[in-house]
Amino acid sequence: MSTRGQWAGKEATSQAEGEGEELVTTAAAFGALAVALFEWIRRVPPVRAAFNVARWLCAAGVGGGVFVVLHHGTSPAPRNLLALLAAVLAASLAVHLSSWPASPRGPWPARPPLAEVLLGCVIAVAVNFAFGVLLLATWKWTPIAAPLLLVPLGTVHWAARLHCAGRADQALRSSAARFQALVQSSSHIVVVLDAGGGITYASPAFWRALGHREGTQVGQSLFSLVHPDDADALQGRLGEHLAGRGQTASFEFRCLAGDGTWRHLEALASNLLDDPAVGGVVLNTRDVTERKRAEGLLAGQAAVLGLIARDAPLMETLSALARLIETEAEGARCAVLLLDEDGETLTVAAAPSLADVGLHEADGMVVGPRAGSSGTAVQRHAPVLVADVAADPLWSETRRTALAQGLRAAWAMPIMTADSRQVLGTVTIYFDRVRRCGPGDTRLLEAAAHLADIAIERSRAQARLAHQAAHDALTGLPNRVFFLDRAGHALDLTRRTSSSVAVLFCDLDGFKVVNDSLGHDAGDRLLEELARRLQEVVRPGDTVARFGGDEFTILCENIADEADALAIAERVGRVAATAFAVGDAEVLVTMSIGIALGGARARPETLIENADAAMYRAKARGGNRREVFDRGMRARAKRRLAVHSALHRAVERGEFRVFYQPLVWLASRRPAGAEALVRWQHPDRGLVGPREFIALAEETGLIVPIGSYVLHEACLQAQRWRAASPGREPLCIKVNLSARQFADPNLVEVVAGTLGDTGVDPAGVCLEIAESVLMEHAESTGAALRELKSLGVSLAVDDFGTGYSSLVHLKRFPVDELKVDRTFVAGLLGNAEDAAVVAAVVNLAHTIGVKAVAEGVESSGQLARLLELGCDIGQGYHFGRPMPAESMALHLGG
Known about the structure:
Number of helices: 29
Number of strands: 27
Structural class: alpha+beta
Largest sheet: 8 strands, mixed, barrel
């Protein structure tokens, strides 16, 4: 191509480019003006409108460039084309991102995904690009029609804007619906107040929680619903928030509910008065009534349980419980009623707020099916919750009285024992208006009834323990502790009068025989009957007590003189002498009674000791007697006490000594053995005989260790004598067994152990048991004797003739000797009856094949007569007095 041609081509290209640029500029300016006009009409914010105009200019420029390429066959510079495309994309992205929220908030719609934003950008670029090309083409070929193309362009922009606005409105409506649903179903209360405390908005939870009709309180002051005690504190908190000094901590106040009760609310306040969308102070509130009630109930329960733990009086504890219920149940007045022992009437135990009413359910209310709330609850063993006393048939009999006293509702909850088998009473709540019992009220009543059960049962347990501590379990009579206390009060009263106090100490004679023959159950029945008789025969005001066993004491006040006390004692004695029906048997007993009188200066303990001493004097004189204490008895009682204490020390110190009295074969006068006799080597009094301590040792049980010591020493000494004279005829050592020893279940083991320890030949040991002891346990004696006999020892019946031996029993007993009592031997020469008894005993012994032994032989005449009767062995002062072991060894050797 020639240079001219090349220049001609360049010129044509330049001309075409000039026309294209002119066309693009004109179309872009015209389009940008139209877009700006549409944005202004739609009141789009200026920044966003500028982005839309820029996006149009970029799209028109790209479209113009494409048109020039298509129409003239020339192409713009690539960098210009890429720059235009980047500008279009940037403008579109800026437009879309301007409507993309930074983060979702609350119930507002979530931001669209980034992919959706990019897709919108591409679609916008394509639409604008197409319209740019179309606009330029129209402008080139038909310029007059170009403005008409702005109509569909505006329509597209308008439709896009309407679509976006529709989506925004839909999102807003969805968000509003979601927010409304959340507010409607939320249990939290939202209240908006104006600067003066007026309610401008309240969420549905406000009406539900307080029970007001929806919207009724809007426009009113919140303080008209707040409890007067909480109003000042609430005003102060709201004032702090209005002043900008509000704290974020929650606060509580009470608000009036639709049913007249007070609800506890916990709130957080936010000052949004400057927010045009709210324009008030927002209270985010929740109902904490149940929590407060539970906290108050727990605190009250702890206080009541504390009273129970401290053993406070029952009435004090129940009054505290009633006040707790009145605190927790608004407007309530509580009463605790207890069921009497007859199970038919109710008694008011605590009613701290009903004193002014007089409590229509007064003491002695009868339990029944129409006995108001309380009486019916006891009868049904179930709660009776009367919401309207005026209309309920359970109140038909007492309705008029109840309404006159202002009682309109009554809820009663029975107080049941832990095993739910017994009703103890009721917890009853009264109201001065009609009121139904809600679930929370029922829980309150149940908790109160449970606490009342604990308090009542503990109080009764304490009363039982106190009664048991002061009373005898068998007869129910006062015991020694109670008797001493009453005696002390009685003696104090004598200071204001000239009268005296008498104590009667009563003890049954031979009661042990009843226990042993009929059994302890029969003995207990007899004691119970005797206790009943004694209570009937004494004067009103006198106190009958049981000290233990068969010992009873009677405290008689206002006694004029000794004759007065003796008259009472005679009546008591006659009561005991009347036959007792015990099972199928009739039992006759007698009673020994000791009497002691005293005045203001006397001590209760001294009176009892004196009466006890007089009782022992009565027993010593044969029993079934009445003895009045005198000073001689006191001296004897003191000596007896001193001996008792000294005996204990003697056992511990080993102060007892064994003496031996010779036994002689009467026919040959040869030694037959010796009887071991105990003596007390007193550190001050010297050698003390058995008469001064054996009876007391038997009574106190000390005879058991003393007897074991004597048995061991005697067996050991017999073994020594035998070892010293191995060729001598075997001698017999005799040892007495007391009643306590014979009754000891370990007797056989003790005897066997002694025989083994000392090594003595059992055949040379003879155990003596008194006839009275053998006959006292006639049924079991045979077995005990056979066990002893199996050890190889001999057995002798001591003091024979003084008891009531049965020949049948005697024949069955495995005894070896019958020992005639010394009283009969003493009268052998001068008393025909005693001589006949001695002869009979000797004959009986020989008849049943045992030896006859006579004790208390003191003269040759007695010896001669015993020889005539055929008595085998003799013992007494005629042959030798009791002597120490060393002297006895010489006696035997001689």
